[in-house]
Amino acid sequence: MGMRMAGARWRRGMAGAVIAAAAAGLGGLATVTPAAAAAGPQAPSPTVIAQAKAQAGVDPAASVAVVLCPAQNLQTAINGAPAGGVLVVAGRCTGNFTIGKNLTVIGLAAVLDGGGTASTVTIMGSPQVRLAGLTITGGSTTSIGGGIDNFGPGTVTLTGTTVTGNTAQSGGGIYDPSGGTVTLTRSAVTGNTGGNGGGIDSTGGTVTLTGSTVTGNTAQSGGGINSTGGTVSVTGSAVTGNTAQTGGGGIYSVLATLSLASSTVTGNTARTGSGGGIYSFASTVKLAGVAVERNTADTDGGGIYNNGGGTMSLTGSPVTGNTAQTDGGGIYDIGGATVTLTGSPVTGNTPDNCSPTGSVPGCTG
Length: 365
Hints:
Blueprint: H1 2-11, H2 34-39, H3 46-55, E1 65-68, H4 74-80, E2 85-94, E3 97-99, E4 103-113, E5 121-123, E6 128-137, E7 148-149, E8 155-159, E9 162-164, E10 167-170, E11 174-177, E12 181-185, E13 188-190, E14 193-196, E15 200-203, E16 206-210, E17 213-215, E18 218-221, E19 225-228, E20 231-235, E21 238-240, E22 243-244, E23 251-254, E24 257-261, E25 264-266, E26 269-270, E27 278-281, E28 284-288, E29 291-293, E30 296-297, E31 304-307, E32 311-315, E33 319-320, E34 323-324, E35 331-333, E36 338-342, E37 346-347, E38 354-355
Parallel strand pairs: 1-2, 2-4, 3-5, 4-6, 5-7, 6-8, 6-9, 7-11, 8-12, 9-13, 10-14, 11-15, 12-16, 13-17, 14-18, 15-19, 16-20, 17-21, 18-22, 19-23, 20-24, 21-25, 22-26, 23-27, 24-28, 25-29, 26-30, 27-31, 28-32, 29-33, 30-34, 31-35, 32-36, 33-37, 35-38
């Protein structure tokens, strides 16, 4: 009933202020007057809906249902939407939302707030779910996926979406299990807290970030990203200012595949462990055009810690200005692991650039 009423309002071209699109990727569509904001969200115009659909990569001909929170219930709209449907959401929607079908949810300054009671968004079954122009916050669970739990697992695509202020034992912001796929484009994962993976935890899943940021997250291991047996690809993105109590302030990779290109890993901290920027154990790691700078570890590997027989290659990727309290300010490489440097200076790190001595060919000091 709520969706039909919202759709009717849109079709009639109801007058009123239009909700501004979320700043992270769907911004600039409209403005909201103070009076309209006080009155709550009103139905967006067809022009704004068309713009939002275009920026979210939705077929222009796709029909939509409009959900105006909190007056209308988002979960009811999700349940009533057809498989492959599109929901356009405005306002603040509080609750724990479950999606078990192919669905696109486009936010116009919309906030999905878990209310501190469970995961904010849970994916069930194996659907293809697109989330665009949303802020996902307020998820709190002692289990997995505070902001988004890709439990199904499904294929989840985030565009212009911010995942912030969520808490979980694994994947404070996002949890992606084996067989799951999570893709972030022009999105932000910030200020989340987890036991493993403050921002993102992938246990055998596939995570891809393009033009995105992972910043200010906190965890026991993998402050920004934790990957165990999964595949993580980071392009044109920043992993910065994250903190791990033990290892992998920025990224923690175990028995996994990790590739970064044209990105930065900066200002991350491993408070009582190793790998301020990147911690790698028995993983395959490739860095191309990546700056690993100003990261800190309490023990070894201020910039990078590589162990367990893994392989790591750096191409055009400087490792500079990192600090370790014990050894390997730039890179610490042990346990039969190998590091190959190509046009990648390791300089200005404290107390040394690479350790043990001779472990990284081409690295001195």
